[in-house]
């Protein structure tokens, strides 16, 4: 039995501008609810404890180090080629903790719209409450 589909594979490049301040989240591929993004943080991270009620996701550190916290405190520091799978509904935050920009690959399954703080109120990624700072690229510098 042949199965027909109009869905096609997507190729993408593991490339993101390196930053002198702030952060960037670039979606490089998406099919339905599944997405792949390249993230870079000059400093800081996703600083407010939050969860995605509808989206499990994976972070893989490609450059730098990331310190992750869960609801009970620090869960550990991840370095190059280490990753973490965050289940939907698990509260976390992270920050860069190295002397170079943090670069991560993020894979998610869901639209991420149900991103909330521990008290249940919405907590957008680009909000002041989440200590968001727009990324300022280092001219001509990329992770690739």
What does this structure look like?
This protein has 144 residues and is mostly beta strands. It is built from no helices and 12 strands. It has strands at 16-21, 23-31, 34-41, 45-52, 57-63, 66-70, 73-78, 83-86, 92-96, 102-109, 115-116, 136-143. The strands form 3 sheets. A 5-stranded antiparallel β-sheet has the order 2-3-10-5-8, with no helix packed on it. The protein has a 5-stranded antiparallel β-sheet with strand order 7-6-9-4-11, with no helix packed on it. Strands 1-12 form a two-stranded antiparallel sheet. The mean pLDDT is 93.
Whole-number total of structural domains = 1
Total strand segments? 12
Roughly what is the average pLDDT, rounded to an integer?
A: 93
Task: Return residue spans where pLDDT drops below 50 for at least 5 consecutive residues.
Answer: none
Topology:
Layout: E1 16-21, E2 23-31, E3 34-41, E4 45-52, E5 57-63, E6 66-70, E7 73-78, E8 83-86, E9 92-96, E10 102-109, E11 115-116, E12 136-143
Antiparallel strand pairs: 1-12, 2-3, 3-10, 4-9, 4-11, 5-8, 5-10, 6-7, 6-9
